[in-house]
Amino acid sequence: MPAVPGSAPALPPSVARVAARTRLSAELLAAILEVERRTRATLEDIERADALAERLLVRRGARLRAAAGRPAR
Description:
The protein has helices spanning 13-35, 43-67. By secondary structure, it is mainly alpha-helical. α1 packs across α2 (43-67). The protein is extended.
């Protein structure tokens, strides 16, 4: 995938997956704290957000592969 002029170069797929998981994990952690009306996260909160992010990305990948007619890995 070519880079858009003026943007950062495209990341390798493995790095892009880690970046996506990190962003999603941070969003989920923020949502957990917001729903529970807390301002501080515990290690358990961080681990839960990361595990949820991983599962959501795996499920999304499976849906995309299924939509493209490719078997799951």
